[in-house]
Amino acid sequence: MRYDCIIIGGGLSGLTCGIRLAEKGARCAVISTGMSALHFSSGSIDLFGNEGEGKIVFRPFEFLENFIGSNPLHPYARCGSSRVREALFYFRDQLDLEDIDLYNNDDANHFHVTTLGTLKPTFFSQRSVFNEKIRLAFEKKSKIAALNFEGYRDFYPELAVINLKRNVLFRNIEISSGKILYPDYGDPQRNPFEYRSIDIARIF
User: Fold this and answer.
1) Do residue 124 and residue 51 come from a single domain?
2) Do 99 and 145 share a domain, yes or no?
3) Are residues 83 and 122 in the same domain?
4) 129-144: per-residue pLDDT in tens?
5) Which domain holds residue 11?
6) Is the same domain home to 71 and 125?
7) What is the pLDDT of residues 31-71, one digit of tens each?
8) pTM above 0.90, yes or no
């Protein structure tokens, strides 16, 4: 079988590339080995969050213009800032077709709370992860509980609580951790030695 394009990697970028090429009428194949990193994704899409040495980027497209000027051989420079913008919002529109709604703060980054309890600047977040209610809850200094399913080893709420308490933004918020007991979780497990996020998704 002949293809116009072969894409190496079945992650988010590879799959999106395949969809875009197929829309343009190209025959493409996506080659991927093993399990992609999609199940480890935070659910956020970044453009520029940090510029190094812990310095946060608040306006990624403004930073992009300066970055392109300083790095003329970078792929972003070859594409141009307008195409980078187009690609980002194309991706958002594709997810919208699948009823996955992404939040963004115009052209500015917002902060996404990670599973480690740190704040990560990002451009797009799923509204189930970041939305106006969550933002208002932080501003009103509500209580926060970091919860995990008993037996799930990819998230440690105690560590998240420690890091959240270190952040001055959460200094006056009561933060606690806990576990959710679900006695029948073993039924949908693919592997008796592992309990992963996909197993939780099968339950709900």
Assistant:
1) yes
2) no
3) yes
4) 766 666 676 667 678 8
5) 1-40
6) yes
7) 988 766 665 666 788 899 988 777 899 999 999 999 999 99
8) no
